[in-house]
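Feature request, filed as a ticket because there's no other form

It would be nice if the structure record came with a short human-readable summary line next to the tokens. Right now we just get the raw output. Example of a typical job, pasted below so the devs can see what we mean:
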Amino acid sequence: MTSSFEHHTYPGRLSDAERDRALKVLRDGVALGRLSHDTFVRRMELALAARKPDELAVLTADLRRENRWSRAVFGAVGAVSGFTVRLRRAWTVERLPKLLLPPVANPYPLRIGRDPANGLRLSHETVSRVHAELSRQGGTWVLRDLGSTNGTSVNGRRVIGAAVVQDGDQVAFGRMSFRLSAG
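Raw output as currently delivered:
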């Protein structure tokens, strides 16, 4: 039996808030590229099994948080960088050649590629023989990549399968870029 004057030398159980803070630091670390996925998973397992606050501190020691000033500077640099990318894209889009959308009454898809049998033949080494297909489905235009080697993209994003497109979108087949136009 212990008297009221004796103190236990081991700390109490970790609180859920302490564990959540450590897990958030680990999630932020992997999101910022400071941890690999495997390291993140292993440290997360260790954090969930930890019994003492110092065990959590060891797991997050190399992931020091940035202070308010450095977060503000990095945020401002990121915003300026994003703005320059959007500005460059806007500047480029206006100078791109137009790709006219087929007439709405045409029920057949427009095949795009290097093969002479395609409806739109693009003679460029980054364009596949049968690269993509543009068709009208239920009132919308759909651009489908047909397993091309160098890919198809819409507004800078690679098309996986198919994507809905519209007048004014920037499309690229390999390294050949166009701006879609209704007329």
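Something like this underneath would help us a lot:
The CA atoms of residues 107 and 136 lie 7 Å apart.
DSSP finds four helices and ten strands in the chain.
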